[in-house]
């Protein structure tokens, strides 16, 4: 077998003597390398882009801590609303019972209480309970809701904070503090990113 035979498939490539290094210019692919590739094997993949939020494009996959806190505060407000509704219902029943008691007709303090219609207390009881149910709804939807839930939570928090200042300044102080924190946590940039995340 001769290496000089140009038809020999096992011989040295044309223009290259056996036992001598390749005379190809540097930077050129070697014998048998695919043309246009930097070397043997698969083409190189493009570099990975650094994605925010741990490599998941489009938004955080875990609920931010502030949004979690806002959710808990919504449930706390709901609990306070239920307690308030129970107390108001007891007050409405007590007022109605006092109106039916003839022995209290001559009491001055009772006359002031009797002037207060029990229907207003029942309406306030239903309103307080409905506000608590709305807080539960918002807290439950924070995990899966979109930007509409975020806006609703902020509006809820602002109205709750205002009502906590007036007319319920003494009993509404806890509501005011919690509502302000809810509005801040939901309104921050990480909260906006959570509610605007893509949903598949």
UniProtKB/TrEMBL annotation:
<keyword id="KW-1133">Transmembrane helix</keyword>
<feature type="compositionally biased region" description="Low complexity">
    <location>
        <begin position="9"/>
        <end position="22"/>
    </location>
</feature>
<keyword id="KW-0472">Membrane</keyword>
<feature type="region of interest" description="Disordered">
    <location>
        <begin position="1"/>
        <end position="60"/>
    </location>
</feature>
<feature type="transmembrane region" description="Helical">
    <location>
        <begin position="151"/>
        <end position="171"/>
    </location>
</feature>
<feature type="transmembrane region" description="Helical">
    <location>
        <begin position="118"/>
        <end position="139"/>
    </location>
</feature>
<feature type="compositionally biased region" description="Low complexity">
    <location>
        <begin position="31"/>
        <end position="60"/>
    </location>
</feature>
<protein>
    <recommendedName>
        <fullName>Integral membrane protein</fullName>
    </recommendedName>
</protein>
<keyword id="KW-0812">Transmembrane</keyword>
<feature type="transmembrane region" description="Helical">
    <location>
        <begin position="72"/>
        <end position="98"/>
    </location>
</feature>
